Each structure stands twice: as structure tokens, then as C-alpha cells.
Amino acid sequence: MRAFFGLSLKKKKKSKRKKRRGGSSDDDAEWKKTDPYLPSGVKAHLTRHFRGRGDYKFNRLVGAGGYGIVALLEDTATNPPKRAIIKRALRKDMVDDLRDEIESLKRFRGSAHIVQMVSYRDRSANKTSSDGTLPGPYIILDYLENGTFKDFLERVIQAKAQVPNRVLWSILLCFIRVCVGLTWPTRGVQGQQEQLEQTSAVRGPTAAIAHNDLHMGNVMFGSLRPEVEHSLVPIAKVIDFGAAQSSELYPEPAAGGAPSIWQGHPSNTEALARMLLRLITWTPGALPRNTAVMSNGVETEAALLWAPDKYQRYPWLDERLRLIIGGLMTRDYRNRPTLEGLLQGTLQVVSNLSSRDFPTRLQQGETSQAVMAFVQRFILDAEGN
Ligand SMILES: Nc1ncnc2c1ncn2[C@@H]1O[C@H](COP(=O)(O)OP(=O)(O)OP(=O)(O)O)[C@@H](O)[C@H]1O
């Protein structure tokens, strides 16, 4: 019944509105003049599209990236309105990239450290919605409210703030969970409840997915959560799966005889370890490559943490973190630690760490209060979130 009468009711409302405004043009007229694939046309087309549906409304354009336009939506059914992100192709010829991203994200449904797809529409570039406003596919994503890792790094460097070790440990655990998620994809169903990513010693890795675009703008902070690993530091999640690729599992045995597939795709771990290294060393731009140093008989690219004056430069850094980051950046990926071991070891540390585990001179900066104050200032209260 509702759908049957919907059309005529809508038409009546529209003509009333025009009368009230003296026939002046609004978004209704604007959208026809603009290109839905250009940032300039996004507002008009999305406003119009979602007005007809009544579930979301357009809030603002967030950005136009390599191939996509990203905009903020508000869920009109919730109070206060829940936010969501819509991602569309920037040009018609980029529609296939967006479809690849839809396919990738389907594999990670329910994976806590990978951005979740709330819904999607998979259409060819020219096919529009019934109201004629919005051609092509789109993805609606969970909104991650606490900004990118890139913005976080910039704030830390600007304030010359020493990052508490407990914050580094929590982020490291999030990053390991990301790598686990890319190696044991959940392949859940739409709307699947999020779960922390787990390895499976029984089944062994089921995929070797390379994200292929793991830069700092593609790691974002979500909210604080009840799990112990996210109770002081918000969850970090990976976004933007437009370039992700499944590759062959790595069958060659590692130096010690263990199958190297247990490390996941080496490009993921290395890219994430580099982000932690930049945070520790306040490095604003890309780290130099091919600067490997020897550590315990293997070459690592984490040279900054092996510099002769490292203890003067980073006297506060937990030695175990230094070794893990060095291990994740070894030149021969077969010498890297396994995800299984990393997950167990890091989870154990994060679940039990307290300020008393640090030397007396560091304890004040590692209390729960100090960690909370740091997180509040550099992540939760940050401008632009
Ligand atoms: N789920 C999200 N929650 C909040 N902001 C988001 C979300 N997804 C994307 N953004 C914002 O939009 C920006 C661009 O998103 P994304 O990287 O997915 O698009 P892109 O077109 O592939 O961009 P690029 O090529 O620059 O990486 C992000 O850096 C972030 O600021």
C-alpha cells in the first residue's frame, strides 16, 4: 500500500514546497546540472538520492581520494543520528575499482580491525537509481570517528610528545589483528557481529591477501571498547581495500623450517611496522629504504632503532617492542615471526601490562591515567574528528 501511494504523495509534497519557496531552485534543480561522479556534484546527487529513501541524509563531503569520493551520511532513524561513510567512484572508469573493493570487503565481514561494510549497491556505471539521481555502485561503511593514523602522527610530532609504551603495545596488537584478518579472512555474512581476529593452528592460513595500499591515511581509529585491548586506546582499523589482492600462499620453508605462510603477506606486516617506527622516531615522511642493519644474524630495515646512539635517542622504548619491530622488518620475510606467536605474545603483554612493569623513571608516564590523558589529547579530542 505504502509503495503504491508513495509516488503521488511525494509529488504533492514537492509542488507545495516549490510554491512556498516561490518556485526558486534548490537541490532539486541543482542535481540535474552537476555530474554525480565529480566532487562538485556529490552533495546535490546524494542529498536527492537519500531524500527519497528516508534512511540516511547527506552531511558533508569528506574527501576525494585516488579513485573515490567519500562523504559523511547521517542515519535519520537514530537519535542522536548515527554516522556512516559513503564511498563512490570518482569517475566512470573507476567504477570497477569500487566493485573490487566491495568484493574484498565481503571477505572481511565480521573482522573487528577491518572497516565494516554496512551495505553496498553494485551497479554498472550508467545504471541509475529509480529516482534517476545516482548512477553506479556505492559502499556504505561504518564511520570511524577518531581520525587517521596520519593525523595522529602529525599531532604527536608537532607536540614532540613521547608516546607511552602501553599505547604502542595496543596499536601493535591492533596491527597484528589486521594481519591475522588478512590471513584468516572471516568470510562472514552481511551484518555479522564483529569478532577479534584469531589465528587457527589447526587449519593453517587460509589466504595471503595483500592490502597493497597500507599508508597512514588508510589506518583509522574507531572508538574505545569493552575488550581489555581497547579499553584505554581506541581500536585501529584498516580502510580502503580498492587495491587489495589475493596472492599465492608462500610455500617455501622459513630459515628455521617453519612454513613461511604463517607470517601472512609480508607487505602487510612490514607496512604496519613502519608506521610504528615513524611514530616512535617522529619521522614525518617515508622512512629511508635499503638501510638494513644486522641484528642477531639477520638483516632488519628498522635501522633507526639499531643506531649506535639508540639508547640515548629512545631511552624510554620497551626493549621488547624494539625487537618485535625489528623482527617485522627483517629483509628476508622468512625470518619474520609468525602471526600465531606474535598474537599470543602481544595479547599476553597487553592484557597484563601496568606501569609497574617499567623502570621507576618511566612509571609516571605509563600509568593508566597518563595513558588516558595521552589518548584523550592526541586521539579522542583531536580537531577534525
Ligand atoms: N569508514 C570511514 N570513517 C571515517 N572516515 C573515513 C572512512 N573511510 C574513509 N574515510 C575518510 O576518507 C578518506 C579517503 O578514504 P579512502 O582511502 O577509502 O578513499 P580513496 O579514494 O581510496 O583515497 P586514497 O586513494 O587517498 O587512499 C580517508 O583518508 C578518511 O579520511
Automatic annotation (TrEMBL):
ATP binds at residue 87. Residues 9-22 have a biased composition (Basic residues). SMART domains: S_TKc. Residues 1-34 are annotated as: Disordered. Residues 56-350 form the Protein kinase domain. The keyword ATP-binding applies. SUPFAM superfamilies: Protein kinase-like (PK-like) (SSF56112). Keywords: ATP-binding, Nucleotide-binding. This is Protein kinase domain-containing protein.
